[in-house]
Design goal:
21% strand; alpha+beta; 3 helices; signal; two-stranded antiparallel sheet; single chain; CD59
Length: 150
């Protein structure tokens, strides 16, 4: 029974590695690529596939405010590392505390990993496709291992 479990575990790890590679390599990232004033979102036609000249793995939102000038928001493709827009992570390590938008001047930069996730000004978060697939695989693994023990 223990050997069966170990063999199944090895198969599970190989399947998970394949799926993680497949999800990461097959999909090319699409990000909003525009410059706007105020907090208005980019129009739909600005959602474009990231260029292939670099291995872009994130979308970014940069909010820039200079004294006596309007807020400028730049949305584009980006490379890690950067501050991920994840409320759970923000709660733990307080990434947003370094960006005080109440000041006369600031420059805030956040990233996200999903297609089109940089449309708004940073309030939207969604689970990644890889996380959903991983959770599903873990559930299946749990159910199968539970049946092996019975």
């Amino acid at each position: 029974l223990k050997k069966t479990f170990l063999k199944f575990h090895l198969i599970y790890v190989k399947i998970f590695d394949f799926l993680a590679f497949f999800v990461a390599s097959v999909e090319s990232l699409s990000c909003y690529q525009c410059l706007s004033h105020g907090s208005e979102p980019c129009p739909d036609e600005d959602l474009k596939e990231c260029p292939t000249n670099q291995a872009y793995d994130r979308c970014s939102v940069e909010m820039m405010k200079k004294r006596d000038q309007p807020l400028v928001i730049k949305r584009e493709c980006a490379l890690a590392p950067c501050n991920l827009r994840d409320k759970a992570i923000d709660t733990i390590i307080k990434l947003r505390e370094s960006c005080d938008m109440s000041k006369d001047e600031f420059n805030c930069w956040y990233c996200c990993k999903e297609d089109g996730c940089n449309r708004d000004d940073g309030s939207h978060t969604s689970p990644s496709r890889a996380m959903i697939i991983s959770a599903a695989i873990l559930c299946v693994f749990f159910l199968i291992t539970k049946n092996i023990r019975l």
